[in-house]
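G., before I forget:
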Amino acid sequence: MKITVKKLIKTLFIFILLTIIFVCLILIFKSRQSFNGYILEEATLTVYFSDFPSFWKTEEEQKLASSISKYLFEYLYGIELSFRKSFGIRPTPLRWRIWAGKPLVISWNDSGNYLISFKPSILFRLFIAPKRKNREFNLADGNLSGGKLYYRWQNNELLISNSETLLSHFIPFSTKPLNVSKNVNYIEFGRKNKLTMFINAEKDNHIEGEITINGSKKHTLTPPLDLIGTNHSFALSYTPFIELLSDESMQKTFQALFPKNMMQPLHIWLDTFKNTSVEKIYLKMKDERLLKDSVLIYLGTSKKYSNPIPLVGIWFPYEDSDLKSLLSKHNLELPYYSCHWASYEGYLIPIWNDAICLSMVYYKDGWLICSQESLMAELLASLSQTNSQDTPNMSIHFTQLSEDIEKLLLWCARLELLNGTNERDINNLFSPWKQLMKEMGTFYLYTHYSEDKEEMTFSFNGDLINEP
Amino acid sequence: MNHKNNILYMFIILFILPLKLLVAESLFLIGNGNMLVGINPEGNISFVNWQGIGGSNQMGSRNSSEGQSIKEKLLLEPTAFFLKTQDAIYSLTDNTTSEIKGEYINPEIPLIKLEGTKVGGNIEWEEEVFVHPYRDVIFIHFAIKEDFQPYSIDQLISYQNISPSPPPIPESPFLKPIENIRNDFCSFWDITHHALVHFRPYALGRGDIQRFEQLKDTLAINPKFWRKFEEGAYIGVSSLNPIEGSAILDYPPSNIILSEIVTRTFPQEPYIFGDTCSTLILKPIHNAESQQGITIFYAFAKNYSELEELVDWITTQNYEKVKEELINYWQTRWDETNGNIKEDFAHNWLLLSLSSDPSTGAILPNLKEANCNNKLSLKDSFILVQDMNEMNMLDLSKKLIFFWNNVGKQRKQLAKLTFPLQLYPDGISATPDYWADISQTTFFISMIYVQSNFLSFAEKKEFLNEVWDVLAWSIDNLCIWKVPGELIPAPSYESVLNRDIQSASLVIRTLIGVQSGIQLAKMIYKSVPELWDERNREIQTWIRLAILNKTALEIFPDDDFNYWKKFFPDNNPIWQLPVKYNGNIILLKDIAKH
């Protein structure tokens, strides 16, 4: 009797072992099959991972990811919970790999609708997808989460969308990069103008990419101002980034992806400048294309006033150093007065007393304008006179930016402009984001003309750097 | 001022001032110092300013959240509707189908009586509206005459479109369509007090919303619950007559759905957010005087406890007695003032009293608009002071001057150089400090200057000594407001352009301010500071040079232009000053022709 039981156990063990080997073989075999990937016909934003679980796992080891999971745990838990409720699996890199395979592509259109495309493993087909009445997934097409999501099988790949109609309006993702490293994420954004970008999880999320602008002339890419020493929230060379964002499809996608109430404080703040001289001067400069090849420096908001007054500097190239001819040429009837900051001779154009008093200095073959007199003094003192070799085209100091965002949110809440959210709520809601931004350090982006390209294409690379 | 001039001014005041200053034709004003209510010619409430005469509108016209204007007729409330049958409802106060006449029962009593007849003459009604003299309650009394056969009244419906909004936003003049983003409030039927309660807690937060949501799960509202929101705007609507039913609608009602309203019951759950309209179905009392009367009241309170107390008090009152109390109160006030002011000005006195903040002395001007401006400026105050002085209301004008004097004291302490461009009547600045218009200072100096002309030497000396500190500070500021090395004043904020500019108006006002200051000092034999004399000479030099060199600055003539004409005699060289006006360069003297 004992011998029979032992034999039975032995046979069972061998059977299980063989099954595991068999399954593994199938998995290995299946994983070598090609992945087409499908995106929406009208996709404006596409995110592609050649090996999503690997990227995920590597990302988890990065400092940024650990900060995110530390401060935004509640949000991440919410996402995880909703995933578990929808698919019955707790999402981890390993589980994703076992069930959903490696490659993944997500595309959005400018209405914010999306399509997720991946190639589920055989295990998914064996244990999740079989046609059962009590399962949400099956091998036929259908819907999930009570009709919130829809799915469809296409050449053994599973497509999931929030719109049923869009499940019949997709195309193969033909532009996906080949031989891309498993820990690199590829992003395509825009329709008329285009941004393509690789994010390398292994190298602290190092960014590399290209921007293609349609129908534009060449721009000066080397920023004429070395802003490394300045204490700014963000700085941006006007081109090519602003032209990139002039693509309507990008603007629409941004608007669709960011919830309205998230952007409301910004809109309210910008509304405070509507029909003011500040807006009129800005629009004039924009229309007259004075801002072409300019540099925008945002240094935060002033604490001195009841409304958040921005501290801004703009530099634009201009041949004529005579202010009178600059104003008359562009029909700007503004009174001005001579002023000097250390060795720099310049002018003041009063707008709103000491809150906005345009201060102008002819600097490095262009006009440097600051929103306040004191700001000009500060900026001129901190601008490096000798351009360093690697002056970034864009820099974002997240610590300082978080302070500015918080100030803006609190201002809106104090004036009761965010229905149902008061100052106490803002302190609680924004606190984790602020902590995260404080640990993000500074983001630098460098732009260069791509070589051997006739069309207007720029290449860029950027990094998040934690400075002491 | 001699007697001939007095007659002339009386004419101006009697016929011009009422049109210019406080127009009774477009809006009737009622109030009690803590509340200012505008009633339109149909007898409906146009606006309510509470707390205080400059408080933000707590009910009345506003836009829907979609930004589209809601049909005017349905916005104005309380609008009494006469319900004949379930599918035919007539508005008694609709000016398109009614003939309505309204007037104050007495020029000095803020009680409005309106009479209306429906087209066809088959319904005649009367309405009385007033604010209680001591309590923040608006009383509205309808009386419908019985000889309106063949109709018979079963029910009356009163509509309320109440949007309690937060107090004015200090120093944020930019945010004009504020109602579109501040529409969060709550309405519910209070079973304890038989009143519709509309309220919003200030600085509504997520916690508040959660409380409302919890409350929605319960069947009845626990009155204690509302005590948690101590600070806010509470408006209780109830009636001295029995109330049969009511409804709260998320959108303004239209005629199509009116018949549905009567079938609704009082809401037990709070309605949160949105454009909420509410209705009360009121049963008139039949009495022997062949009239059916109905009294609705709107009680305003800062918290729920106060509201409870107020509603409890009102329900014990007799309408006629409350009315009598009001009449006695205002009659006594007028009798006390009557000695100084002529009977002809009784109504102007009443309107000015209603527009005055008793605690600060501020007086709101320009209340003719339905959405009245709840701010005041030095310029408006200066014009008002002149007019009030002509009507011998020296006490009121003095209070207004002391209001600005107190503002000046605070500004001096804060080391500011200018007065705020606009203020709420409680003294809080309505515009940011960086809108610094130094020329407004001249209006303060000129207010004191014109006031002094009505005083005897002893009174003048006492008055000027009281305000001298702020006066000297303001003249000093006018003198130091200049570009170093130049004669002309430094750029100053100009509302028309919404930016700082050096204008001819700035130069002229600065000169008026400095010269008035010098004359005031001389009036009471004070030594004139050298700074003032020097600045006076500098500006006069600049004017002469500008005339010689034909230097023309932009001019923005305003309501004070008439005062310039009084201040500078015709032979003053300033009238030869070239100025830019509407794109042309003309002489200052020619501005009047334009």
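The CA atoms of residues 153 and 431 of chain B lie 51 Å apart. The interface with chain A takes residues 166, 169-172, 174-175, 178, 181-184, 202-209, 273, 432-436, 483, 490-491, 493, 497-502 of chain B (CB under 8 Å).

More on Monday.
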